[in-house]
Specification:
single chain; mainly alpha; about 85% helix
Length: about 450
Amino acid sequence: MNKSKSIILTEGNILNALTKLAMPIIGTSFVQMAYGFIDMIWVGRIGSGAVAAVGTVGFFTWLANAFIVIPRIGAEVGVAQSIGGKDHAGVTRAIRHSLQLILALILLYGVFLVALREPLLGFYQLGEEIQGMASDYLLIIVIGFFFFATNPIFTAVFNGAGDSTTPFRINTAGLVVNIVLDPILIFGLGPFPHLGVKGAAIATVIAQITASTLFILEARRRPELFTDLKFFTRPDLSYVKQMFKMGLPMSVQSACFTLISMTIARIISDWGPMAIAVQRVGGQIEQISWLTAGGFQSAMSAFTGQNYGARLGHRVYRGYFVGLGIVTCVGIFATTVLLVGAEKLFGIFIPEPEVIALGASYLKIIGISQLPQAVEILTAGAFIGLGKTAPPSIVGISLNLLRIPVALLLSATALGLDGVWWAISLSSILKGIVLSTWYLRFMHTNEEMLQLRTEAI
């Protein structure tokens, strides 16, 4: 293992291990978030209609995560547990099958989107002009889907190996490319034509290709992970089945979450394109907190996976509480920022007074749920590291589904559009409470975990 880049997770101080692993992961998450931020900042200068077009397409790229999550979890958990168990063959098996699977899944999804993009976009009743912009944006993004989907797989491989610095460095390089190209292609600076939202899409695809190229070059320098992959070898169907068994619950959760969000967006569309733009931009701002917690989710998953693979149950148990303390601080800080700085934060993206007022209301209501949301995200990582993906999926799907009837009910009252935001916030609070309770009960009642903790004493 490349000791200068990888962090040993099966020994030493747990807080240091989690923090050192999580910081670059958080950085990577912020880089990935910044792709959308940069696009929204520049596209917002075109108008709220353009934001609504890009934001609507965002639901379909978001839905792609339902396909990405199966090989991503397979890579991260497979690599982490294999390294913990000192099984090099298991490492290469996890990487090869994850890459093969994402190629097949994303190709099928891309063909589906291209063939049905008009009726899918028509569901939102955006109007002819905005739907035209959305259709152009979607078609270009789909062209780069392979790179969009493989970058998270490479990131998961390195994270599972305890090396979160490499993905951060590579994804940052891709972001720099996106930052440079966005204004040039959107507004037609210099010799380049004015492309509008199509320019934003082209800039994003070029940036993702850049990151993929750098990942491949890095893989050639890491024989301890990528030796003897034999990518074109026929996959072991029993192993693929195992990956589906582990990742499918999270995939279904991701798909349901996106479909529910799309349904919520359809409810919001009754208030017009401005309300859709508020949800899209508000979601981008809120990502600051849940992507930070998501960094600790990935760190917790890798930490739990390696220590579980090494049969160190006491570190698995203690690690969760260390992580819980960290994300509690994250959640409290996020709530404070969203409540105090709502107007200023939203004004960065769309400098229209009416939109800022609507957006500030969104951020303040969502801000209340930041702490339990962070707890839910961390706890999901602990379950994933153990290979137990069903509990976070069950909690996520059931309580996210609850958002639809509650949103319809509350939005029909004097709350209006704010009723939709309250439905989202309340469900997030419930998810954090229920999932953390489930995990603690599991750790205190599961015979295997009790035995592992006892053996270490």
